[in-house]
Specification:
Helix content is 7%, strand content 39%. It contains 2 helices and 11 strands. It is flat and about 60 Å long.
Length: 176
């Protein structure tokens, strides 16, 4: 059997949430078992939600906020700590920037604003991939048992035609 450091036998990869790792189950006579990287992340307190927002969802995000992470239950708080947002224009023959008319897209807990999302992501006609600057405008307003949503605060945007992918890292914190 090759050593784990032998990258010819065991090539390096960029892992995904559904990849498996091998572990020893001490609660079952040290049996060797597998689990996914996603479950390891959840055990360590990190979860990832990846949501593709369609133009229809973005253009109606005031009227119908888009759920990014569902409510987690009583005394449980969703605490986002990082995100990457990708505006993919590969399928758009004539890309149109989103017009929020002064509305800054935001993350909300139910009916409470929590953070602003960088405008630049939505207001370009070029492909965009970047870390989303989230300005916690209402950072003290995290609310237990509420979903984390994408929405605009005052009105629906009027223009725009491309998908936007939000990859959000978050933790669930339970306070009794």
């Amino acid at each position: 059997m090759a050593k784990i450091s032998n990258t010819t036998a065991y090539p390096n990869i960029i892992p995904t949430a559904n990849d498996f790792v091998v572990l020893t189950d001490v609660s079952d006579n040290d049996e060797t078992k597998t689990c996914t990287l996603e479950s390891v992340g959840q055990y360590l307190g990190t979860s990832v939600a990846e949501v593709t927002l369609t133009p229809f969802q973005i253009l109606n995000s005031f009227t119908n906020p888009v759920e990014l992470v569902p409510a987690q239950g009583a005394n449980k708080y969703i605490v986002p700590f990082g995100s990457v947002i990708i505006r993919n224009l590969a399928d758009d023959s004539l890309p149109v920037a989103y017009d929020f008319a002064g509305n800054i897209p935001q993350l909300w807990y139910g009916s409470t604003a929590w953070a602003d999302i960088t405008f630049a992501i939505f207001q370009t006609t070029a492909p965009y991939t970047g870390y989303a600057i989230m300005n916690p405008s209402g950072a003290g307003n995290i609310t237990p048992n509420k979903p984390l949503q994408f929405r605009t605060p005052l009105a629906n945007p009027t223009l725009g035609n491309s998908n936007v992918v939000i990859n959000l890292q978050y933790r669930i914190v339970e306070i009794a």
